[in-house]
Design goal:
Blueprint (H helix, E strand, L loop, with lengths): L7 E7 L8 E7 L7 E11 L1 H9 L14 E9 L11 E4 L13 E5 L3 E3 L6 H5 L2 H14 L7 E4 L7 H10 L3 E5 L5 H6 L4 E3 L13 E6 L5 H6 L2 E9 L8 H10 L2 E3 L7 H12 L7 E6 L3 H9 L6 E5 L2
Parallel strand pairs: 8-9, 8-11, 9-10, 11-12, 12-13, 14-15
Antiparallel strand pairs: 1-2, 3-4, 3-6, 3-15, 4-5, 5-7
Helix pairs in contact: 3-4
């Protein structure tokens, strides 16, 4: 792409909404920061299930022209707009800007409000930092803001070895919780190393037959997991539904009410203060991202195919050179 002018950049955009084969590298104008915004040179971009879902469905109709996928950003501030004092050119930052609107992380540059980024943890490189924002912000906002997890409470995390699950395990543990995870047996060793107290091989045992008296359940799977999870919750507990669609349905809601259990379906938001807390956990050695695969930006299609296979442990990250 050496013929590109300095005002253009590389990005990944779907030629139409649908399969991973529709992802293509394009040249598009490099964005310019406005007032209170920063221009970030992207070094790495995390890949999340929401990227796959929005590539298929067209998301919530909140896309730019051209549509550029991706929310997780780690990079270096290149320029700042009028009034920005939080960051300066040369600062290393990470964040999940604009969600659920287009962030455009699968690109060489991103522009976003300065307060949607935080300083990158010094102990992480850009690939590791790019693996965290969306999953860690989701886990933080669910466990801290929505469920208010307290020391000694019992937290059940489904798909505990997944991109979100393995981060939620660590944040729940950092909150002092007793953490129970569902995962296939080969992933148990990793999850114990991350702090999980109990593990259930969902391929061998129905989790609801061996887990009880739980205060908080994180359901990232959907289907019948919501109704089954209600059986594990004590009265006053909370079922947090993070699978798409977020609404667990009237039947689950009615069963929850009968059991004295709350149901919540939060949507993650950009959150600089939470990112700062997450970075502090990283620096304290209480949180680390697990990276499954690292690929160059040009191989975004392969990254999506791998992610949609459902066989990854931890996160897929694209590097942007």
């Amino acid at each position: 792409m050496s013929t590109m002018t300095a005002e253009m950049m590389r990005a990944i955009s779907p030629t139409a909404w649908g399969g991973a084969e529709l992802l293509a590298e394009i040249a598009t104008p490099k964005p310019v920061p406005g007032a209170t915004e920063v221009l970030v040179r992207v070094r790495a971009a995390g890949v999340n299930p929401t990227d796959f879902k929005q590539r298929v469905s067209g998301g919530l109709g909140l896309w730019g022209d051209p549509p550029i996928l991706g929310y997780d950003v780690s990079g270096v501030v290149e320029a700042v707009g009028l009034g920005v004092t939080l960051h300066a050119p040369g600062d290393e930052v990470f964040g999940m800007p604009h969600f659920p609107r287009q962030a455009g992380a699968y690109a060489e540059y991103v522009v976003a409000p300065a307060r949607q980024f935080a300083p990158k943890p010094a102990t992480l490189d850009h690939v590791q930092a790019a693996a965290l924002p969306l999953t860690a912000l989701t886990a933080w906002q669910v466990l801290v803001d929505t469920a208010d997890v307290q020391p000694g409470q019992r937290v059940l995390i489904h798909a505990a070895a997944g991109g979100l699950g393995h981060v939620a395990v660590q944040i729940a543990k950092a909150r002092g919780a007793h953490v129970i995870g569902t995962a296939s047996a080969p992933k148990h060793e990793l999850l114990r190393a991350l702090g999980a107290d109990e593990l259930v091989d969902y391929t061998a045992t129905p989790f609801e037959s061996v887990v009880a008296d739980v205060d908080v359940v994180l359901d990232t799977i959907g289907g019948d997991y919501g109704a089954r999870s209600l059986e594990t919750l004590r009265a006053g507990g909370i079922l947090v539904c993070l699978a798409s669609p977020f609404d667990p349905g009237d039947e689950v809601a009615a069963q929850a009410a009968a059991r004295g259990v709350r149901v919540a379906a939060p949507l993650v938001e950009p959150d600089r203060l939470a990112l700062t807390e997450i970075a502090a956990l990283v620096e304290a050695g209480a949180l680390r991202p697990v990276i499954d695969t690292v690929l160059p930006l040009a191989e975004a299609r392969r990254a999506h195919e791998l992610g949609e296979s459902g066989r990854t442990t931890g996160k897929i990250v694209l590097t942007v050179d």
